[in-house]
Amino acid sequence: MRLLLNLLWAVFGGGFITALEYLLAGILCCLTVVGIPFGVQCFKVAGLALFPFGKDFRSGRGGPVGFVFNVLWFIFAGVFIFLTHLALAVSLAVTVIGIPFAFQHLKLAMLALWPFGARITAA
Fold it and tell me: How confident is the model at residue 121 (pLDDT cuts 50, 70, 90)?
């Protein structure tokens, strides 16, 4: 069932587009030394964005450096990514078939707010 949902997600739920956006953002962030930690987070979220069914994330402690990075991420990227996932979730929740995809966008939206220190695990 997870495989079917992940394939449908990648094609119809916005998973491929979302993962591609995270990958491109990660590559752009990694062009500078200062942006490498942010690029790594983009790559981590891209993997979850491509195939989210059967995966979950646990918020963890990123330490003081992770906290500062999370604040910077929240200000410059997190809010905008959160709003994008929220808009996609609302648009998908209008239909009964899109409700599972809407929940995945909500999961990604929460991760987009505060990604440093989060661990992606198998559900």
Answer: confident
